[in-house]
Amino acid sequence: MEKSEAKQVLERAREMWDAQEWLRSAELYEQVLAHYPDEDLSAIWWYDAALAHKFLRNWAKAHELGREAAARSPRGEQDPAFWNLGVAATIQRDWATARDAWEGFGIPMPEGEGEINGAFGPACVRLDTGGEREVVWIQRLCPTRGRVMNVPATKGRRFGEIVVHDGEPTGERRYNGQSVAVFDELLLFESSSLPTLHVTVSAPDASDIDALVTSFFAQDFGAEPASSFHTLCACCSEGRVDWDEANVPTHGGSQSVWLAAPEAEARQLLETWATGDGRGWNGLELFG
């Protein structure tokens, strides 16, 4: 391919990019890169081709092209080529490449080899399943993976599952003075074995409901009373929400509670909790 022809192909690749024709754009970039892999601008072409496949959720191809982009990008300067490679390598479970990519981006990794299970702090992830959108809290295991710490009310989603999220924040939550980013989910990385149950409980005071929640979390299960959920419009969800101000305190009376636990253990915990004065429950059933 002559350079004059390559220039025309690159122009067409950028046109396809602007039109969000990701596959065609990537194919055109690859045509040029097959002949000119190491030009001054090649790192950008590799990056754009890899990013196009990320948009297409073609993780194998994003991983393949992302390695080429990162190999031509400066290390330790938060170059996005390393971030996108870290995401793709994580999804491909190529832990050696993922570790190197995060280090290349400028994020220190825990010592060791294999799967990254560090303590990277809390964040929020916007789950998206079949058009339903729900923001949940996660504990981050690496820069792009986190364990869900709420009991989702979205059917098919579970407490304790591990999700992969994107790197660009699409919202903010503040809780106890701490600012936490909201990221969009890319995919479900590892499912949870804990089923989601639904029950109606009644109790005199908010402290009784808090005691129920605490009893489940003490067993590494989950419990989410209806009063802890908040419905937001898309605009508000993608903005800043101060959880201390928005949070409706847990209240007494009768309300629904979502539970994450095997049914037998859930019944036992509910029975133990219901020995308190004025406490009761009914209608325990599998949710979804």
What's this, in brief?
With 288 residues, the chain is an alpha+beta fold. It has 10 helices and 11 strands.
Describe this structure in words.
- The chain is an alpha+beta fold.
- It has three domains: 3-105, Serine Threonine Protein Phosphatase 5, Tetratricopeptide repeat (Alpha Horseshoe), CATH 1.25.40.10; 122-190, no CATH class; 196-286, Alpha-Beta Plaits (2-Layer Sandwich), CATH 3.30.70.
- It is built from ten helices and eleven strands.
- The protein has helices at residues 3-18, 22-33, 42-55, 59-71, 80-91, 95-105, 206-217, 234-237, 243-246, 263-273, and strands at 122-129, 132-140, 145-148, 162-165, 172-175, 178-190, 196-203, 222-225, 240-242, 253-260, 280-286.
- The strands form two sheets. It has a five-stranded mixed barrel with strand order 1-2-3-4-6. It has a four-stranded antiparallel β-sheet with strand order 8-10-7-11, with helices on one face.
- A hairpin with a 2-residue loop joins strand 5 and strand 6.
- Helix 3 (42-55) packs across helix 5 (80-91) and helix 5 (80-91) runs antiparallel to helix 6 (95-105).
- The longest helix has 16 residues, at 3-18.
- It is elongated, with a radius of gyration of 23 Å.
